[in-house]
DNA sequence: GGCATGATTTGATCTGCATCAAGGAAGAGG
DNA sequence: CCTCTTCCTTGATGCAGATCAAATCATGCC
């Protein structure tokens, strides 16, 4: 039985929270934060643990504080596709919906800041700061899903791998309010199988393409779960789209 | 130059609107509807016309009244993926964003109920009925995008075609507040190429699979743009997922 | 250390769909 | 009626990535 970190950090204050500036609560005022503090609790999961099963009831919603999780959908015969990637500051759960439509699995050790559903929904109805931010985040997620549709529908295996690394690098940089450039290192808290499920490939193809990119010097592997990108712009070219990621300036 | 139908219908009243019960304005009260009437105007486009180009400014948002449109994304080398399908009652545009990220093309003749951006955003900030409904619709769209990810990542060409027909049948039935069952006819306001762009296939594969389904009696074709589904449940089985579409009862 | 367990790599072969290449069909405009 | 043009179908061939099969590597446990 894994050691549950939940109660170690159960009373961390919002004003020192690392995701404060990007999470659902980003626009909240002091009094709203106080309300949120009253309904929140932390939970931790280890890599591989299931956080929610599709079809189960959920009595909470949550923000990812650290770590990574995947939303996963399945066909009856077992074919699996990841349909959402939860990184720090992302939101888990849908207000107004009790039953989870997707299975959520921790792909690395993860810490969630959970809010009890009922009080959260109540506050959501009161606070335009909260509901406005949630709308904004949902629209961003929809944009990300649409980029992902392009990836799954039209990119080659090699481009898919490169795209995933670009996404992870951008997200990691965004938390530090930067953008990736030149030499850059990324944590890769995913097994080859999880990557395959994300990219609509098999794990063998993922392995082959990763090693091909490595052989050609586009990436360097430090162990299996850490990637160094010697030239970020070169990786972006491999990813197939030349967009700058839509970030300003 | 096509004949512009825009001004023929420029003053249709909201209370006789066919999409009233499902569009952004669904939860609005009489006074909010009056505000909306003041900022709205209708525009029509013919099949194949571009409604918005990616990168262009948009000074309106809109609801689809009738017809169909596709949001489309492209890689520099021309590979094209549809990333959104706009059917009656769907919402076009993102509040707070001026520049369109995707090209929007009418795939059939289409009528839009447009709202001037600024007044709409103002009302959105005032009205929880409006913003709440928009959040709800955005979350539904995200769910649809996630089903689509599964389709693109893991389904065979045959399953993809069947899935598209199931989606169109469900949407057509939903407008009449029903669910498809038994024998059912669907309009297919898409060229083979548009279907291919939706499904991440080539138009040749779409054509072959459509005719294969026809040969096997799963579908019947009335002309090229109308499909009769003799047994809806059989089509759902071909689509690969046995879900009931998530509708209650 | 020795041994299980799970993750990853690597190789050989197969196959579904893309690609390339002609034709048909059906409507629009002269 | 003829001739574009656009859309669709059908056939032949090739290839990227799936599938099947075995090592290799790591890690934790006894």
Number of β-strand runs of chain A: 11
How many domain units of chain A? 2
Order of helices and strands of chain A: HEEEEEEEEHHHEHHEEH
What is the CATH superfamily classification of the largest domain in chain A?
Answer: Jelly Rolls
The overall pLDDT of chain A, averaged over residues, is 91
Biggest interface and residues each = A-B, 42 and 42 residues
| Oligomerization status of the protein chains | homodimer
CATH architecture classification of the largest domain in chain A: Sandwich
Biggest sheet overview of chain A: 4 strands, antiparallel
| Cα shape of chain A | globular
Q: Termini separation of chain A (Å)?
A: 48 Å
With helices defined by DSSP (H or I, 4 residues minimum), what is the helix count of chain A? 7
- SSE-based structural type of chain A: alpha+beta
Catalogue the unreliable spans of chain A.
Answer: 1-9
CATH class of the largest domain in chain A: Mainly Beta
CATH fold descriptor of the largest domain in chain A:
Jelly Rolls
GO cellular component, one term (chains A, B): cytosol
InterPro entries (chains A, B): cNMP-bd_dom, cNMP-bd_dom_sf, Env_Response_Regulators, HTH_CRP, RmlC-like_jellyroll, Tscrpt_reg_HTH_Crp-type_CS, WH-like_DNA-bd_sf, WH_DNA-bd_sf
Keywords (chains A, B): DNA-binding, Transcription, Transcription regulation
Domain HTH crp-type (chains A, B): 155-233
């Amino acid at each position: 039985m894994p050691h549950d970190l939940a109660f170690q950090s159960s009373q961390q204050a919002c004003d020192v929270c690392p995701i404060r500036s990007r999470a659902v609560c980003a626009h909240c005022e002091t009094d709203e934060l106080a309300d949120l503090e009253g309904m929140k609790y932390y939970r931790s999961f280890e890599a591989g643990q299931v956080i929610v099963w599709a079809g189960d009831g959920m009595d909470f919603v949550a923000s990812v504080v650290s770590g990574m999780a995947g939303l996963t959908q399945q066909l009856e015969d077992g074919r699996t596709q990841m349909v959402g990637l939860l990184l720090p500051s992302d939101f888990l759960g849908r207000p107004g919906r009790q039953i989870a439509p997707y299975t959520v699995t921790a792909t690395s050790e993860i810490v969630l800041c959970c809010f009890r559903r009922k009080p959260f929904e109540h506050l959501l109805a009161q606070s335009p700061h909260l509901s406005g931010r949630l709308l904004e985040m949902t629209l961003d997620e929809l944009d990300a899903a649409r980029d992902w549709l392009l990836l799954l529908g039209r990119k080659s295996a090699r481009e898919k791998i490169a795209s995933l690394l670009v996404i992870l690098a951008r997200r990691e940089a965004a938390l530090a309010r930067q953008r990736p450039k030149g030499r850059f290192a990324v944590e890769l808290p995913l097994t080859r199988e999880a990557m395959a499920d994300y990219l609509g490939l098999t794990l063998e193809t993922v392995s082959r393409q990763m090693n091909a990119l490595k052989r050609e010097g586009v990436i360097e592997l430090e162990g299996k779960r850490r990637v160094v990108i010697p030239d970020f712009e070169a990786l972006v070219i491999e990813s197939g789209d030349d967009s700058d990621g839509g970030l300003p300036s």
